[in-house]
Amino acid sequence: MDTSTGQEISDALGVLLKRSTRTQLYRTLTADVGEAVDELTYPVLSGLARTGPRSAADLAPDIGLDRSGITRRATQLESAGLLRREPDPHDRRATLLALTEKGEQTVKALRQRLSDHIEASLASWPPGEAAAFARHLHRFVTDGPFT
């Protein structure tokens, strides 16, 4: 692979990984869902959906927030009935954050909304190209520089 291909991928990843890019996507994704779910709380919901119950400290590095930021957002989500706090069975001093059934349904709906948004943005691509991109992106993530 020549340097220009690597640079092109690097530049595209730079845009994708920018906090402002994610924030804008999450803002679009969570529009009209309810005041508890927004671009700031969505990463907590999504992170817990991926990992299962976690402490705020354990979840923090996965979603790029500090523990206190997660705790504030968890309080907002708990008030809305989307997550609950439960004792850590392995450490009685610790508390785990866990999605409620309502939280799981909310994440499921938001992920479907995201999938639909992505598919709509690829609708103009030639047949098969989007599917090939998805396969290559998956391979890049599993076999590429992130492993």
Identify the notable features of this structure and list them briefly:
single chain, 147 residues, mainly alpha, two-stranded antiparallel sheet, 7 helices, 64% helix
Terminal residue distance: 19 Å
- For the residues shown, what is the average pLDDT? 91
Structural class: mainly alpha
- Spatial ordering of strands, largest sheet: 1-2
Q: Residue share in helices? A: 55-70%
Along the chain, the helix and strand elements come as HHHHHEEHH
Q: How much strand?
A: 5-15%
Continuous helix count: 7
- Total strands: 2
Low-confidence stretches are: none
Major β-sheet annotation: 2 strands, antiparallel
CA-based gyration radius: 18 Å
How would you sum up the global shape? globular
Question: In words, what does this structure look like?
Answer:
With 147 residues, the protein is mainly alpha-helical. 64% of the residues lie in helices and 10% in strands. The protein contains seven helices and two strands. The protein has helices at 3-17, 19-30, 42-51, 56-63, 67-79, 101-121, 129-143; strands at residues 83-88, 91-99. A hairpin with a 2-residue loop joins β1 and β2.
Topology summary:
Layout: H1 3-17, H2 19-30, H3 42-51, H4 56-63, H5 67-79, E1 83-88, E2 91-99, H6 101-121, H7 129-143
Antiparallel strand pairs: 1-2
Helix pairs in contact: 4-5
